[in-house]
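Quick one, tokens below. Sequence please?
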């Protein structure tokens, strides 16, 4: 079968969705399918290349002319409406690749919507987050889980997050193109029950099946030749490990506050990417590593005592949870979003209320005291 995957970003850009799309592309290719990936072009990248047996096509669109709209040029997102330039470029790739199935993973899917009829392809859409209904994709309103979209509320919320002009454009685009996407998609695949519910798929009668993220069977196998050595500075005794964006919505401030309350605590290691607003000071005993290759991350899990995923927003389906458990590590995780689908409370980890620093402290102390 000829399959085309659409993703805003793809490795070497590092992130959960990016690794998921690569794993899926390689897995399909290994099974004999003809696989291509279409993604956004980032500076310094080739416009076309091969990743194993997968053809990678990087596109430039109208949005590329608005570089000042991006807060982080290292992570370029497609707009929530069809981008004329991206749609034109995408049509050229489609005519050459002739996909039978197009599988979208985020807002780049919307630049395919005007082409669906002409392409003759079936359209699948994995919902990795809440972007079908939320301009911020996080489903957070005033630091709490949002109870659902409402235009006036979303306009104000997005303006506080992006700035007024950009927030208005993204909100109107989300509201305007969402119904178009629901009509065009042949099957939605939300990554958790939380995403399915928040996206209101059942309410609008959209076809869907909950399919969680996955990790390769050999994800915990780390050949020494693949290691970069960036984790050589890790503590020489078991440590508490956090992997993810170093941001408030991932619960990093709460984790640091809870860690400071622990007495005679093991070291704390944070591996992730810095964002605007990331912490700049850390408690004694903390090691921070950024832009760590995936193989090194998996090696770091092996040296850890347990992992912590203290997300303050309803985290849809963090792949990092499955990677931690693949190495046999228990998790302390927030009881929200897709994490209760992944962590069996009291068996494979401990679930705590999001933002509850005291509960997080108690859970960490319990696992430290009884490894």
């Amino acid at each position: 079968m000829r399959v085309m995957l659409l993703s805003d970003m793809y490795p070497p850009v590092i992130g959960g969705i990016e690794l998921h799309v690569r794993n899926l592309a390689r897995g399909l290719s290994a099974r004999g399918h003809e696989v291509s990936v279409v993604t956004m072009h980032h500076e310094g990248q080739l416009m076309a290349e091969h990743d194993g047996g997968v053809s990678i096509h990087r596109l430039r669109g109208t949005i590329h002319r608005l570089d000042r709209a991006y807060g982080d040029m290292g992570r370029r997102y497609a707009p929530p409406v069809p981008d004329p330039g991206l749609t034109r470029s995408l049509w050229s790739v489609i005519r050459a690749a002739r996909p039978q199935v197009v599988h979208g993973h985020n807002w780049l899917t919307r630049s395919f919507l005007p082409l669906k009829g002409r392409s003759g392809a079936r359209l699948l859409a994995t919902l990795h987050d809440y972007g079908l209904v939320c301009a911020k994709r996080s489903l957070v309103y005033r630091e709490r889980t949002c109870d659902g979209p409402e235009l006036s509320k979303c306009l104000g919320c997005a303006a506080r997050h992006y700035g007024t002009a950009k927030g208005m454009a993204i909100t109107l685009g989300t509201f305007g193109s969402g119904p178009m996407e629901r009509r065009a998609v042949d099957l939605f695949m939300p990554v958790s029950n939380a995403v399915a519910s928040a996206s209101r798929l059942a309410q609008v009668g959209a076809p869907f099946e909950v399919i969680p993220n996955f990790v390769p069977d050999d994800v915990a196998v780390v050949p020494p030749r693949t290691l970069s050595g960036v984790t050589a500075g890790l503590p020489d005794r078991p440590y508490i490990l956090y992997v993810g964006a170093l941001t408030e919505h991932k619960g990093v401030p709460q984790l640091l506050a809870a860690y400071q309350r622990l007495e005679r605590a093991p070291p704390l290691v944070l591996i992730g990417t810095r964002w605007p607003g990331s912490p700049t000071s850390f408690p004694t005993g903390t090691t921070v590593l950024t832009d760590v290759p995936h193989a090194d991350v998996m090696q770091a899990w092996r040296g850890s005592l347990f992992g912590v995923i203290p997300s303050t927003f309803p985290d849809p389906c963090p792949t990092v949870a499955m990677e931690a458990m693949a190495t046999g590590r228990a998790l302390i995780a927030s009881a929200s979003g897709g994490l209760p689908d992944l962590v069996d409370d009291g068996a494979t980890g401990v679930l705590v209320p999001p933002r509850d620093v005291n509960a997080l402290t108690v859970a960490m102390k319990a696992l430290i005291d009884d490894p």
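The chain has twelve helices and 15 strands. The first strand starts at residue 2 and ends at 7.
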